[in-house]
């Protein structure tokens, strides 16, 4: 990072983002905020930009942790139902059913991959939710690491009300996050709204914060500062091992961890961290 040490300040490593606001909130802490008023409804250029941002984050050694938020009235109201990107995809593919199907599958896969970039980027991602997170908002939240919400926030797996099954990750990730198949199916079949308190009780959120958007954003940034102070090799390893464990058996996870540790236990971060603990000092780690 270069320039003034004061925060917040613009994040200039990525270049120009049109539908997101990118801000350094502290050393190593990047905030990625949806910026498509009035309710951050999603169109194709928005998720393609999100994909590009998190592909950059994955290789940016200045970024240690990310806060995900929404500008304006809410976190996100979900997809912009007035957009017809998929219709254009089918039109471009022509009248043949098979070719339309291949084009649709490719488009949906690219959309899924864009949201999954937050999971794959290797950096911890903390979401700060205010007001509402509907539809695609749940897909996005399922792909981050930690979810905080202001206490009056509201949620909904909204897709069935638009005549479709959620297809960008909610149906795959939410059951594993919540661990209650009956409740997940109820939420997904009915599209009913659920409160921040219910989201906390079911295990979808880790914290509720009183005080609205500013308060939950501050809580997320403060948490990200703590995360960003940790050894980057340890952070990367913890995220990758947790993701592997989610999708594999216990023994497969242990075997993968043993292979990981065979190399990563040789990291210089370990003696740096131990020395800092012994000397009661703040460690300074090399970038990863």
TrEMBL record:
One cellular component term from this protein's GO annotations in UniProt: mitochondrion
Pathway membership, UniProt: Lipid metabolism; fatty acid beta-oxidation
Gene Ontology molecular functions: delta(3,5)-delta(2,4)-dienoyl-CoA isomerase activity
UniProt KW keywords: Fatty acid metabolism, Isomerase, Lipid metabolism
Pfam families: ECH_1
Gene3D superfamilies per the UniProt record, alphabetical: 2-enoyl-CoA Hydratase, Chain A, domain 1, Lyase 2-enoyl-coa Hydratase, Chain A, domain 2
CDD domains listed in its UniProt record: crotonase-like (cd06558)
Plastid as UniProt keyword: no
GO biological process: fatty acid beta-oxidation
Family named by the database record: Belongs to the enoyl-CoA hydratase/isomerase family.
Protein name: ClpP/crotonase
């Amino acid at each position: 990072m270069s320039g003034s040490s004061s925060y917040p300040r613009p994040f200039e490593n990525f270049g120009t983002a049109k539908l997101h606001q990118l801000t350094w909130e502290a050393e190593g802490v990047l905030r990625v905020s949806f910026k498509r008023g009035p309710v951050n409804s999603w169109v194709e250029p928005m998720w393609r930009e999100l994909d590009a941002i998190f592909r950059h984050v994955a290789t940016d050694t200045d970024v240690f942790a990310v806060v995900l938020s929404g500008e304006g009235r809410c976190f996100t109201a979900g997809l912009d139902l007035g957009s017809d990107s998929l219709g254009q995809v089918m039109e471009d593919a022509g009248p043949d059913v098979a070719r339309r199907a291949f084009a649709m599958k490719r488009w949906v896969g690219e959309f899924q991959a864009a949201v999954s970039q937050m999971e794959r980027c290797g950096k911890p991602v903390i979401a700060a939710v205010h007001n509402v997170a509907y539809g695609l908002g749940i897909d996005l939240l399922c792909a981050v690491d930690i979810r905080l919400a202001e206490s009056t926030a509201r949620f909904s797996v909204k897709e069935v009300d638009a005549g479709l099954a959620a297809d960008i990750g909610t149906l795959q990730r939410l059951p594993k996050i919540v661990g209650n198949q009956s409740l997940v199916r109820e939420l997904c079949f009915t599209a009913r709204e659920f409160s921040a308190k219910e989201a906390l009780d079911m295990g979808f959120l880790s914290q509720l914060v009183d005080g609205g958007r500013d308060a939950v954003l501050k809580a997320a940034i403060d948490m990200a500062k703590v995360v960003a102070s940790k050894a980057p090799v340890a952070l990367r390893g913890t995220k990758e091992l947790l993701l592997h464990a989610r999708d594999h058996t216990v023994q497969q996870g242990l075997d993968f961890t043993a292979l990981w540790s065979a190399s990563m236990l040789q990291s210089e971060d370990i003696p740096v961290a131990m020395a800092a603990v012994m000397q009661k000092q703040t460690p300074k780690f090399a970038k990863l």
